[in-house]
Known about the structure:
Elements: H1 3-23, E1 27-28, E2 51-55, E3 63-73, E4 82-89, E5 99-102, E6 104-107, H2 111-116, E7 140-148, E8 152-162, E9 165-175, H3 219-224, E10 229-234, H4 244-257, E11 263-268, H5 283-287, E12 295-299, E13 305-310, H6 315-331
Parallel strand pairs: 10-11
Antiparallel strand pairs: 1-9, 2-3, 3-7, 4-5, 4-8, 6-7, 8-9, 10-12, 12-13
Amino acid sequence: MSTHRRHCAQGLWASLLALMSIALAACAAPSETQPPDTDPWLAGASADAVWLPILATRDLAVGVARLAFTLEGGDPDAPAPRVRAALYDLAADPQQPLSSQYARFVEFADDDDRAAQPFTPHGHSGGFSVSDELPPVGRGLYIVPVRLPRAGEWGIAFEIDAGARHEEIRFRFSVRERPAAPTKGDPAPASNSRTLADAPLSELTSDPNPEPALYQLSIADALAQRRPILLAFATPAFCHSRACAPILDIVKAVWRARAAELIALHIEVFENPHQPQNLREAPAFTEWNLPSEPWLFIIDHHGRIYASYEGAAAQSELLQNIDEVLSQWRAQR
Length: 333
């Protein structure tokens, strides 16, 4: 990586550290310099911290959740650190974790690939988009499954190891009773999303290398076929989190591997990606009530959500769940 890009990364780290100190109440583990009565879940981030964990999962609710986060900071050319995540129910016991496990790292495209498809500056007709609220995601996401038995305030403690360096960082997050987005078991909203019958490919997606097959059917038409569906909401050219293009590439690869039986759809977050200075969120995106992007959904042949992924997913993870719904579909044909 060039000196200029390293300096940019260092500047990004400083900005994100300040943001997290204010917005997410991020904090390091208690140190000898902190007063003995300081709440470790509310203290400011330590000045010498190298890494900053940022939650990529925003829609957290009671039940089993797939918590995803990224690490900003450190040497971008070094191997990804090992991260152990401990979950705390702050209302019940802020000292004893409910669970502790190593997170799985899902790597995105390298810096050169991302530089070849840079983020596109844009504006919004309504002055707001969920994509603009998201923090940048670096080289990939860490994923850890957690069980959240109640709504309220929770804490997560990260133990980060990279060679001889070890850091512990904590912050709190909120859990709601029910997620905003459709979840497992919910009927998939039958949105009349646009297809190639409605507009040219350039007006349906910001993907620089689109797969036309992903724009042949609307969500409603796909559900009417009563076949398993892989559905992606993503905006590759305008995605602040940098996760959209890699995720859409995975969707294409998974669809090609199961194209004989699986329907795959890509819904662009914006209905006019060919007008980047005046973007409007697509009706299908707002109908699904998604608080972030990208999102992936696997829908079974009954039209119900079988699995959902906020932020990122590994190809192997998708294929496992898709093969499960395909097997169920074959058994009932």
